[in-house]
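Worked example 3 (structure in, sequence out).
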């Protein structure tokens, strides 16, 4: 055709222009508009969700609520609807456009589709469905930020992609963005008006429902029982935690705990008879029975303690995790609890809605975490709410305040916490909360599992709360749980047969330390065995908790060949496996006002202790045993020393069995109508033994050396003597002098403690000068040195120097202390001593007529004592000194207030005289144990008679050895 046209001279026909065909046809465009609408809604929804998330991060407050959760549910709903349309549109559009000439637009289209798929896939992964659980925190965080970044990348790519096509209709988009932005702003502003208040004390109006417990609810009203009893709900995502908790003593804290049931049922009976109601027993319920307590059922005198639906709830998952505030560190359940806000459909019986709820929690767990895991849950102060108690007048009808069990204060002011400047020993690094010991990490693939510090695998904290309560596990016939607690107790204690004194008296010649060399014993001679109990891996007093019914004792057996020549601590099978009452017990012998022992865990009767044998953390207790070597022995003498532990003593368990029988429950090991035989497991916490040669007996004796540094054995022995009071300070001086001879700073430092206690201040100063020579030694406790210096300087009248020394304890901080987590600014004994020193300085200036300086010192002293009350609101010393200070400066109102509080918290030393006198008459063994100097006889006739019977017990049920 072209050739012909050329030949006839005509022009060639113009080429027909190809018609432009849109890549998105009419039908596909409808799908695209649908996608645009979904994206627009998601844009507005995401703007709201994202802004709330940002504001929570920026302000530290929580704004998520039920409406927010529905908005998030809408986000998931829109996202799932979007999946299929995007895939269909993307596949068709890519197929239609694959051969188009604008290759740049095609390539951008490919990228746009890939990013769209990335957005959808990351969204699906974050919802954690179809087996994609994303339990690794790093993986989840990575996917989350990819999901956040994908929409921004999509907008940019879409803009590039559309540059090759029809013009973008910006006006429509801007109008929508403006409307959506305004709506988002309005919603967020409304949301900001009501942040979740989790760290505030509950209203005063609710106190009347819960006192004498100090617990409160966030509204002042009761909380429905069902909202506190949804442990099965927690099980879905936290199976490992739930499994451990199911066997914990927290789980069995209430009427499902036979010993507690026995005691609290008696308290309720006494209260009802005495007061006409059971409200006094609320004191127990705030910690032991939170579900019936906060739901209001507990107050009913006819409350069915066995079959009511709340009676066996114990401390549920929700109870602990719904606490929103620690009101103070006074204990007695001084916390605020709320009815927790759940995600939509949490209580639905519909399985589909339950599935939706579960996916909401998994997809957006932040609010769930904030609701049920506050920062204070990781603190010792949280534990103090129930592991520190005082007995109020409403319970005992005697006094407003009597101190009961107290784990918190001894821990806080110990070397273990890094806050006690006066300890004998310090760990390499402070243990800054209770959970470090009692909630060790365990491997888990629960949804809450994390890679904690120094962990090599996903872990959770053990909610068995391993400690020492083997008794409840035994009653439940759970040998595995008994073993778990016994394993935990390994290496927590140590015993040492340290030395032997000639003549059988504490002032006899001491041969120590025993091993590898030991002296030759002489038949017919009297000796005093010097033994030491030492706390090792404990951050609180040993023993603690149910200290009046815990049974911890030293079991001593002295043999020559097969012959038992000395015995203490045997169990008597003829007396229900009772431990010989003449044994040394590590406990508190508590009395009522008539001198009767508190033997039923009956708090309403607690009055005063006859003795207190608890051992501080990182300290020792020295125990003396007297023995005469028989003339007719024919073999070397072997002494075996064991520290034994049984959760409850026989007298208490007899009460438990019979009280439960009254209500129709028969506990393990009990035969109805008979006295209870206590067969609870006995755990050997520590053991030591030594064999002595005997004069005239030709038999080789060898003893392995102890694996304890010699200086430390002397030091532990001296500490035990020092803590006895003033009765054995000469022996303590002897021990610490040996420590100094061995080149340890502990020697002169502890000698200064001895001399300070005796009032030998010049000797104390000399000892501190010698201790200071060790100042550059690694581990030298400069803070303890400064405390002792300040104490002695204050007594000598060098008040300015004392102030400087005490300030250094509270204020100094160096790199080593920070690395070890030490902060002694919380040591209230040092704070009070500084406050008293400032008070004295003020008095001195007052006598000198320097009124301005005097008032300045008084004001400084007031600040110090107020600081003490911030740490311990019940501190007697601080209240007394504040009373005196306010009187001094003429503030009568404040002086009267602190006088009132001082009288409230001050022990009633005058009232206890009668109770102690009566107890000494009733309990000769306890009377003996309460003496200033106690020597336990190893050759009481009754004890030796019981030896054969106790052997039968040991054969039948061997004590579990945790060493």
């Amino acid at each position: 055709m072209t050739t012909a046209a050329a030949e006839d001279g005509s022009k060639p026909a113009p080429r027909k222009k190809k018609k432009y065909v849109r890549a998105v046809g009419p039908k596909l465009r409808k799908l695209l508009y649908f996608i645009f609408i979904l994206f627009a809604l998601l844009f507005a929804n995401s703007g709201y969700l994202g802004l709330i998330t940002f504001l929570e991060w920026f302000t530290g407050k929580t704004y998520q609520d039920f409406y927010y959760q529905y908005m998030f549910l809408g986000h998931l709903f829109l996202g799932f609807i979007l999946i299929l349309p995007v895939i269909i549109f993307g596949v068709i559009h890519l197929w239609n456009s694959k051969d188009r000439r604008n290759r740049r637009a095609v390539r951008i289209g490919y990228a746009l589709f890939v990013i769209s798929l990335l957005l959808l896939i990351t969204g699906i992964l974050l919802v954690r469905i179809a087996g994609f659980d994303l339990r690794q925190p790093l993986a989840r965080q990575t996917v989350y930020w990819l999901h956040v970044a994908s929409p921004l990348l999509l907008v940019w790519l879409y803009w590039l992609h559309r540059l090759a096509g029809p013009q973008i209709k910006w006006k429509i988009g801007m109008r929508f963005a403006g409307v959506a932005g305004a709506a988002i702003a309005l919603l967020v502003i409304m949301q900001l008006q009501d942040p979740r208040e989790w760290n505030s004390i509950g209203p005063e109006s609710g106190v009347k429902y819960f006192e004498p417990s100090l617990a409160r609810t966030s509204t002042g009203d009761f909380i429905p029982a069902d909202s506190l009893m949804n442990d099965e709900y927690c099980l879905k995502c936290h199976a490992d935690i739930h499994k451990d908790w199911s066997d914990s003593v927290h789980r069995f804290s209430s009427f499902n705990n036979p010993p507690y049931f026995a005691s609290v049922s008696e308290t309720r009976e006494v209260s009802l008879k005495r007061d006409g109601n059971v409200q006094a027993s609320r004191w127990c319920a705030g910690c032991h029975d939170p579900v019936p307590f906060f739901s209001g059922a507990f107050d009913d005198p006819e409350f069915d303690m066995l079959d009511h639906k709340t009676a066996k709830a114990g401390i549920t998952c929700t109870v602990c995790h719904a606490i929103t505030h620690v009101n103070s560190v006074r204990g007695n359940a001084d916390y605020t609890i709320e009815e927790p806000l759940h995600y939509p459909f949490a209580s639905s019986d519909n399985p589909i809605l339950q599935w939706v709820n579960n996916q909401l929690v998994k997809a957006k767990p932040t609010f769930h975490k904030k609701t049920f895991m506050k920062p204070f849950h990781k603190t010792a102060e949280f534990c103090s709410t129930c592991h520190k108690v005082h007995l109020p007048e409403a319970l005992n009808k005697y006094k407003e305040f009597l101190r009961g069990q107290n784990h918190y204060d001894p821990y806080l002011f110990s070397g273990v916490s890094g806050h006690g400047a006066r300890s004998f020993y310090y760990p390499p690094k402070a243990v800054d909360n209770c959970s470090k010991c009692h909630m060790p990490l365990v491997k888990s693939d629960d949804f809450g599992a994390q890679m904690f510090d120094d962990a090599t695998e996903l872990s959770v904290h053990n909610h068995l709360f391993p400690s020492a309560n083997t008794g409840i596990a035994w009653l439940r016939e759970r040998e595995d749980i008994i073993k778990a607690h016994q394993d935990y107790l390994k290496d927590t204690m140590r015993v040492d047969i340290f030395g032997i004194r000639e003549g059988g008296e504490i002032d006899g010649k001491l041969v120590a330390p025993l091993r590898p060399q030991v002296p030759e014993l002489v038949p017919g001679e009297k000796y005093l065995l010097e033994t030491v109990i030492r706390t090792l891996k404990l951050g609180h007093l040993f023993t603690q908790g149910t200290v009046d019914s815990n049974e911890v004792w030293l079991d001593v057996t002295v043999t020559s060949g097969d012959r038992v020549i000395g015995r203490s601590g045997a169990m008597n099978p003829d007396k229900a496996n009772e431990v010989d009452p003449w044994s040394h017990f590590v406990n508190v012998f508590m009395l009522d006002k008539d001198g009767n022992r508190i033997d039923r865990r009956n708090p309403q009767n607690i009055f005063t202790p006859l003795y207190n044998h608890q051992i501080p953390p990182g300290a020792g207790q020295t125990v003396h045993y007297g023995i005469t070597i028989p003339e007719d022995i024919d073999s070397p003498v072997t002494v075996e020393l064991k520290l034994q532990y049984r959760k409850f003593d026989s007298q208490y368990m007899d009460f438990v069995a019979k009280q439960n029988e009254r209500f129709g429950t028969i506990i393990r090991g009990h035969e109805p109508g008979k006295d209870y035989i206590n067969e609870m497991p006995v755990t050997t916490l520590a053991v030591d033994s030594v064999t002595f040669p005997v004069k005239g007996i030709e038999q080789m004796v060898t003893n392995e050396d102890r694996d304890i540094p010699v200086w430390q054995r002397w030091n532990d022995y001296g500490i035990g003597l020092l803590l006895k009071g003033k009765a054995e300070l000469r022996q303590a001086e002897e021990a610490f002098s040996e420590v100094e001879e061995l080149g340890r700073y502990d020697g002169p430092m502890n000698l200064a403690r001895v001399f300070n206690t005796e009032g030998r201040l010049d000797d104390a100063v000399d000892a501190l000068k010698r201790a200071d020579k060790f100042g550059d030694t690694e581990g030298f406790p400069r803070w303890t040195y400064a405390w002792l210096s300040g104490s002695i300087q204050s007594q000598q009248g060098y008040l300015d120097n004392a102030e400087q020394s005490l300030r250094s304890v509270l204020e100094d901080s160096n790199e080593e202390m920070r690395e070890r987590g030490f902060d002694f600014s919380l040591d209230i004994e040092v704070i009070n001593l500084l406050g008293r020193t400032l008070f004295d300085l003020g008095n001195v200036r007052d006598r000198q007529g320097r009124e301005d300086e005097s008032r300045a010192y008084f004001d400084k002293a007031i600040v110090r004592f107020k600081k003490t009350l911030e740490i311990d609101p019940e501190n007697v010393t601080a209240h007394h000194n504040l009373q005196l200070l306010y009187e001094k400066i003429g503030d009568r109102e404040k002086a009267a207030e602190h006088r009132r509080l001082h009288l409230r918290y001050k022990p009633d030393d005058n009232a206890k005289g009668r109770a102690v006198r009566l107890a000494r008459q009733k309990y000769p063994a306890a009377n003996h144990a309460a003496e200033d100097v106690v020597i336990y006889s190893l050759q009481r006739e009754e004890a030796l008679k019981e030896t054969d019977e106790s052997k039968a017990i040991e054969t039948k049920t061997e004590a579990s050895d945790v060493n």
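Notes: The radius of gyration is 37 Å. Residues 63 and 193 are 9 Å apart (CA to CA).
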